[in-house]
Amino acid sequence: MVQIVIRGSVDGCSPPQWLLVELQGEMVSRHNSGLAGNVMGDLLYTKEGVPVLIVGHHILYGKLVKLEKPFAIPMETDHQGLTSTSYTVSALIKQKLIFKTRPKPIITNVPKKV
Amino acid sequence: LASLQRSFNNCKNKEVQATLQIAKLNEEDLNPTIHCLSFGENVSSADYCLMELDDTLCKHIEAGQSLVIRGDKDERAVLCSCDKTYDLRIANTSNLLLFVPGCKTPDQLPITQDRACVVHAEIWGFCNSYWEPRKQRPKLKKLKKLLMENPYAGVPLAGQEESKENRYTMQDLLERIQASEEEIKNHLVTIHACQIDGCWCGLDFDYEMKLLSHVTQLVDSESWSFNKVPLQTSLEELAPLEPREMIEHCLNCYGRRYTDKGEVFYALHEDKVCRGLALMLLQNAVKFNLKEFQEVWQQSVPEGMSTRLEQLKGVVLVDRASSPETISLLKVEDLPEDTLERFNLLFTLREKWTEEDITTYIQDLCGEKQTTGALLTKFARSSLQNGIKVFNSRRPVAT
């Protein structure tokens, strides 16, 4: 039987907290060159704390939500050649920014009324 | 480097300001910090990376404790904390989940700032599935099976060596049983397992009954109260018959240890002793006449103890429909762990069950927040027989 250990932390401290961004749909790079290294978009917050995401030609409004059940991100521990597999929780996610509303296109040229 | 950073930020600022203008967002309404999100150079789909945690598991992790995933090739993997077992499933979402390490929430940002400030945050990974642990009853049937491969059955006869094979240390058990350490330890106590030379093994049933008989007969012959059985005297009296450790083990299984004025006593547990002796009587018969059984049973227990059929819930089946009424052995711990297999077997043994009778034999199947009622609705069909609700199989079963 396999036993895989997932350690809470290496140094006994609580893992760092990351943020989750949840989007509807898929993300495809503009020139189909893959996502790595590419800019995704800009995230802003209104003074009321509403997150706003600008991705390409779209603007999305979202919400900051506390997760009912947090997520852990276990990553393989660097164990210098030892045979047993082990993981360490590298981060915890307790909140997410969820963008559920339909993205609004940003129109650059609005024809003037004649 | 700092000036380069600043000029980069300025460029970014101009870009962002232009975007804001086009997007018709008013700078005054916004927090001055802007996160510029990009995909890291090594970003890739992080499937199988996210694990959902319930409150208990999260606290475990934050306290620096570990979790263990256990599973054989042909078993579904489980996740174990030190004292709980969880089934591991993958949940899918149609949404895209991005994990961003350097991203702040509004409450973490300063609101008083003159200029826009750009923060570069890299997306570490993305996925649309995650591990979802669900609390479940641990699979402990295998534990008894392993420990009964080579149970202890008393001192071997002269000339014979006791086989030490198929006996397991706690480490061995953790590598074979899909359960948490604490659940395994508790089950070892429940099944009366004993530890010999650091290895765990089961107790042969006939031998266990022999030990119990020695103890109960001694209690009667010495006219002790079954609530005050002296350890020392018991060991001295019974040592010629059985090893001391085994006598003490028997007392631990069937009684509660306490000290009175520096001396160690045991208060025998009435229900456990009565149940043990009933099992001994029923072991070798297929069915027993209920009335006869009850008489013999009462006579076999120590003075002062009372036998009651309720003590045998989950280990016997009483047939009140037959004439004369009968009783037979049916131990819930011997039944299949799989829910469907369990129901099939129960309906093979008896076509129609009352709710009370069948509940006893399906109670342990209930997962968290599951009721026996829900199981019955799913796996059985109910009908009325002589005004009493009975359950039978949903499918034809050979009896």
In short, what is this structure?
The complex is a heterodimer of chains A (114) and B (399). Chain A is mainly beta and 114 residues long.
Sum up the overall morphology of chain B in one term. elongated
Helix content of chain A: under 10%
The largest sheet of chain A, given as strand count, sense and whether it forms a barrel, is: 4 strands, mixed
Number of structural units classed as domains of chain B: 4
Structural class by SSE content of chain A = mainly beta
Question: Nearest-angstrom radius of gyration of chain B?
Answer: 32 Å
Low-confidence stretches of chain A are none
InterPro entries (chain B): Dcc1
Protein name (chain B): Sister chromatid cohesion protein DCC1
Keywords (chain B): DNA replication
Organism (chain B): Nothobranchius furzeri (Turquoise killifish)
Q: Explain this structure to me?
A:
The complex is a heterodimer of chains A (114) and B (399). With 114 residues, chain A is mainly beta. Helix content of chain A is 0%, strand content 53%. Chain A has strands spanning 2-7, 17-24, 39-45, 51-55, 58-61, 63-76, 86-99, 104-105. In chain A, strands 1, 2, 6 and 7 form a four-stranded mixed sheet that branches. Chain A has a four-stranded antiparallel sheet with strand order 3-4-5-8, with no helix packed on it. The termini of chain A are far apart. The mean pLDDT of chain A is 81. With 399 residues, chain B is α+β, with helices and mostly antiparallel strands. In chain B, 34% of the residues lie in helices and 26% in strands. Chain B contains 13 helices and 17 strands. Chain B has helices at 2-22, 55-62, 141-147, 170-174, 181-190, 205-221, 231-238, 244-254, 270-282, 290-300, 339-349, 355-360, 372-379, and strands spanning 33-45, 51-52, 67-71, 78-80, 85-100, 117-135, 194-196, 199-201, 229-230, 255-260, 263-268, 288-289, 316-319, 326-329, 353-354, 380-385, 388-393. In chain B, the strands form five sheets. In chain B, strands 1-6-5-4-3 form a five-stranded mixed sheet. In chain B, a hairpin with a 4-residue loop joins strand 4 (78-80) and strand 5 (85-100). Chain B is elongated, with a radius of gyration of 32 Å. In chain B, 28% of the residues are buried. At the A-B interface, strand 1, strand 2, strand 3, strand 4 and strand 6 of A face helix 1, strand 1, strand 2, helix 2 and strand 3 of B. Strand 3 (39-45) of chain A pairs antiparallel with strand 1 (33-45) of chain B. Chain A: Its main location: nucleus. Chain A: Belongs to the CTF8 family. Chain A: One of its GO terms (molecular function) is DNA binding.
